[in-house]
Design brief:
Blueprint lengths: L1 H6 L15 H34 L1 E3 L4 E10 L3 E12 L2 E12 L10 E4 L6 E3 H5 L1 H35 L6 E13 L7 E9 L2 E10 L7 E5 L2 E9 L6 E2 L11 H14 L1
Antiparallel strand pairs: 1-5, 2-3, 3-4, 5-6, 7-8, 7-11, 8-9, 10-11, 11-12
Helix pairs in contact: 2-4
């Protein structure tokens, strides 16, 4: 790496392409996360409120009909259960489709009955829904909080990325670093390119920068391998900021032809 450092230009360089994703696309993804939170609240919230009302004065409905009762297990502990119920009360026919999401590592069979509210006869649920009421509430809150945190994190990333890209509109001094690939993601099976998350060390501190993207047909500048992981050539602005992964043709940064040749010769000498 010393040969590459010596060959790397010390003059300010203009970054033609950073490989950092569009901040607008990140904001759209964040808004999608918030929409999931709102949609989940609209879907789950009324069911939870209904069951809390029923829990206040529950009455069993032994003559009720339960159909299509089924539970599915996810990851060995998350249960998704649903059933259709119907019953007659005070000359009125009531039908409802019920769905529940809760944690239960036992994955056992559930014996259920229909429970209605004494004060609101048309409100009904399954005994399972009441048994797991707080479980369901906590699961819904945790999932909602997770999507909310993810959305806020994406907004923060969009702000950080946008601010960093603005600093690259003017030439900056760059420090070359070897970057070990931690995660590789092919977008739509590589049809829309590939993103890399890479780790590197600078001034004795370890960093990890995510999602330096390459379009289909583009390739990163590979220095070699570290075990089974590829080591790529990256560059970090001397004043600080995120790492930029260089492409194999060295066109992401506006090097002169002589500088490109010098870097290529330094890599070949260190191979």
């Amino acid at each position: 790496m010393s040969d590459i450092s010596n060959a790397f230009p010390t003059r300010p360089l203009l970054v033609a392409k950073s490989g950092i994703g569009s901040a607008k696309a990140t904001v759209v993804l964040a808004l999608f996360m918030f929409a999931l939170v709102v949609g989940g609240a609209i879907w789950v919230g009324p069911n939870l409120v209904r069951d809390f009302i029923i829990q206040a004065d529950p009455v069993e409905v032994p003559e009720a009909d339960i159909r299509n009762g089924e539970c599915s297990t996810y990851r060995g502990f998350m249960e998704s259960c649903g059933a259709d119920i119907s019953y007659d009360i005070k000359g009125k026919h009531v039908e409802a489709s019920l769905h529940y999401l809760f944690l239960d590592p036992s994955n056992g069979d559930y014996q259920v009955s229909v429970i209605r509210s004494a004060s609101h006869p048309s409100m009904a649920t399954l005994s399972l829904g009441l048994d797991m009421l707080w479980n369901r509430t906590i699961v819904a809150a945790a999932i909602g909080a997770g999507f909310l945190a993810l959305g806020l994190g994406l907004l923060n990333k969009a702000r950080r990325d946008s601010r960093f890209v603005r600093t690259l509109r003017e030439p900056v001094q760059l420090v070359p670093v070897p970057a070990t690939v931690a995660i590789t993601r092919k977008l739509f099976f590589g049809l829309m390119g590939t993103t890399y998350t890479a780790k590197y060390t600078l001034d004795g501190k370890k960093y990890q920068d995510a999602h330096s993207g390459f379009k289909r047909g583009e390739r990163p500048f590979v220095l070699g391998t570290d075990g089974k992981k590829s080591v790529l050539l990256g560059a970090v602005p001397r004043q600080g900021g995120m790492m930029i992964l260089l492409d194999a043709a060295l066109e992401r940064i506006e090097f002169t032809d002589a500088e490109r040749q010098a870097l290529g010769a330094a890599v070949a000498a260190g191979a």
